[in-house]
Amino acid sequence: MIVPPGSHTAFIGKPETPEQWLMYLYGKVPGPFHPSHEYSRYYEGEQQKLAFSQMRYKAAFASVFEQWRDNFCGTIVDSTNERLHVDSFRIPGEDDGEDARKFWQRNSMDAYSTSVHLESLISGVSYVVVWADAKGEPTITPVPGSRMAVSYKPGSLWELEAAARYEMDAWGRQQVTLWTEEYVYEVAYGTTEWDRGEKKSNPLGVVPVVPFENRSRLGADPISELANCIPIQDAINKTVMDALTASEFAAFPQRYVTGLEIQEDSQGNPIEPYNVGQDKLLQAEDPAAKFGSFAAADLKNYVTLVDMLVQHLATVSRVPSHYFLVNTTTAPSGEAIISAEAGLVAKVKERMLHFGEAWERVIRICFAVKGDKRKDAFEMETRWRDPEYRTEAQHVDALLKLRQLDVPLEFLWSEAGFSAAQISDFRDMRKEDAKAQAEIQKLLPQPEPQQSSTVKPPQGNSGNANRKIHEAK
Predict the structure, then answer these.
(1) What element of type H or E holds 240?
(2) Could you tell me which residues come within 8 angstroms of residue 200 by beta carbon, excluding any fewer than 6 positions away?
(3) Rounded mean pLDDT of 93-108?
(4) Confidence category of residue 38, pLDDT binned at 50, 70, 90
(5) How far is CA 50 from CA 69, 100, 242, 298, 305, in A?
(6) Helix, strand, or coil (residue 235)
(7) CA 467 from chain center: how many Å?
(8) Is 370 exposed, middle or buried (0-12, 13-18, 19+ CB in 10 A)?
(9) Which among 15, 109, 149, 254 could bridge 28 via Cys, Cβ 3.0 to 4.6 Å?
């Protein structure tokens, strides 16, 4: 945990010095009791066990159900995150995103971009820092929301006036970095006083931090995907725990005996007369003794209630019921899946709008690091992989019909799910195929030129024929 220096005094008004900015932004970093930590625990399935059980049940079954969990929160988040894959970036009319793809691949963002999305879906917000390395190449660094805080310009929803990152290494040394449009202020590892940092000018002229906010609202903080799901998840855990407890007490037939004299020990406590088991025979000498058993408890009611709660959870989260296999053990197929996943796909596409804008700002800052004019390419667009799962036959058939409408091949390749790198290879392959076809054409027998079948008589012979006729006369 980053601890601010104790010698600092409070200030009033807008922060002016780097030290004041660090103090102000540190107050916005999520503390140990922030809801984002609870969301993370629910995603990992580490929420409180036996939370709704009576104390005697906790004492009796704490060790039995210590590792038990019935957690759907991970499924809810992962079902959205697994469909959020950035494919490439494109500036209309300029390029096909080759340079942006180099930035992306150089920083291993094919893998880490999903981590950015995952953190945003769980906690509500995550961040990406763009800066230059020792060689002047842009570096893209994901940062969780628990280690960074930002301040927006007054009246703006996306322009930042300051951002601070609070880190701690494995040896407990803290490092603090502050970015503004004018300068960068860094307190080195091991330095505990924030007024002893190093201040440098910011060559980019912008705060190189991009927030990734989930479910962005006007005038409200971003929120986790699990905010409305946790109460239902708690109810599911409570119901299932009741069923497990009932299975211990009442799921097996309980036997009883009447008319038998009760024996007591020296302390006056009743002694159990029989050691009941499958291989035991109960008998009594008293003819008035009668044996019987109670009916076993029916646990189907618990199953019905859990199914209802899971259906509510599917409605709130917009995750199809077949992800939870409610009331069935087989998943639907074909058109039924497309219809059932319509809500989930619509939710994913809405997340793509906001996350796509954030990734475009990241790439523009990368161009700014390189001093490229494309740092102002606001028409840039993020290409995502298709979030909808369809059968290959249906997908290809739809693309072939689009081809009949003279839709360009590269667009169809993109819609077919091929990556930008594969499409670039396709272009080169088509050029090589055309060259090979031309070489083969040269080796084939060439057609001979065709002559006209109608032979015209020589011109000027008509006068000679007339003269010969007159001479004969």
Answers:
(1) helix 230-249
(2) 183, 184, 185, 186
(3) 87
(4) very high
(5) 10, 50, 10, 22, 18
(6) helix
(7) 101
(8) middle
(9) 149
User: Which pLDDT does position 461 carry in this prediction?
Assistant: 57
Whether 92 has a pLDDT exceeding 70, the answer reads yes
> pTM score > 0.70 for this model?
yes
Q: For residue 438, what are its two tokens?
A: 């031309």
Question: CA 74 to CA 46: how far, in whole Å?
Answer: 11
SS (H, E, C) 364-413: HHHHHHCCCHHHHCCCCEEEECCCCCCCHHHHHHHHHHHHCCCCCHHHHH
Exposed (0-12), middle (13-18) or buried (19+): which is 93, by Cβ within 10 Å? exposed
Instruction: Give the strand pairing for 138-144 and 148-152.
Output: unpaired
- Position 182 scores a pLDDT of 95
Neighbours of 400 (CB within 10 A): 10
In angstroms, the CA 340 to CA 445 distance is 59
Among 9-13, 34-38, 87-91, 141-145, top mean pLDDT goes to 141-145
The amino acid that residue 183 corresponds to is Y
Q: What is the mean pLDDT of residues 187-207?
A: 91
Q: Collapsing DSSP states into helix, strand and coil, what is residue 121? A: helix
Query: Residue 408 class from Cβ within 10 Å (0-12 exposed, 13-18 middle, 19+ buried)?
Result: exposed
The SS3 assignment for 187 reads strand
- Stated length of the chain: 473
Amino acid at 70: D
Q: Which amino acid is at 146?
A: S
Q: Which residues pair with 384 in a beta bridge?
A: 86
Could you give the CA distance from residue 143 to residue 408 in angstroms, rounded to a whole number?
39
Rg, the chain, Cα only = 37
Q: Tell me: pLDDT of 3 over 70.
A: no
Q: Evaluate the CA torsion angle 18, 23, 24, 25 in order and state its sign.
A: positive
